[in-house]
Amino acid sequence: MGGHPIEQGDYLIDTIAINEIADSILKWISFRNPGAIIYGAPRLGKSYAIKYLKRVFDIKYENQWITFVVRTRKMKTPNESRFFEFLLIDVGHELFDKGKANAKREDLLIFF
Is the pTM of this model over 0.70? Predict the structure, then answer.
């Protein structure tokens, strides 16, 4: 295998739908929305679109904002400590499993 991204499977291509999502996200940012959820039926390309847009926004808007992708997880029993642990994992915090829920919440707040 060669070193070209197509040969390695490391490429992303935008679509009209992805560009529409990008426009929506930029509107949300200009309106200062504190957060958003992208949802839809399974197998529509949401994860692909988010992966693509994160890569594009991290390059195009470098040093203007930080982009994190937070996955949803189903748990049998709600647990505040696990909730903050998953958030810390998704933002790349090294000490995601240290302390109780209030300590993890503080770690998340001061991480930025």
Answer: no
Rounded Cα distance, 105 and 51, in Å: 26
Interatomic CA distance for residues 98 and 96, integer angstroms: 6
CB 104 within 8 A of CB 81: yes
DSSP H/E element including 81:
helix 80-91
Residue 17, classed as helix, strand or coil, is helix
For the chain, 112 residues long, give each residue's pLDDT as a single digit of tens: 678 877 887 777 888 988 998 999 889 989 999 888 888 888 988 888 888 888 888 888 888 888 888 888 888 898 999 999 999 999 999 889 899 999 999 998 888 7
SS3 content of the chain, % helix, strand, coil (to 5): 50, 0, 50
DSSP secondary structure string for all residues of 95-109: TTTSS-HHHHHHHHH
> C-alpha dihedral over 32, 69, 62, 21, to 10 degrees?
-60
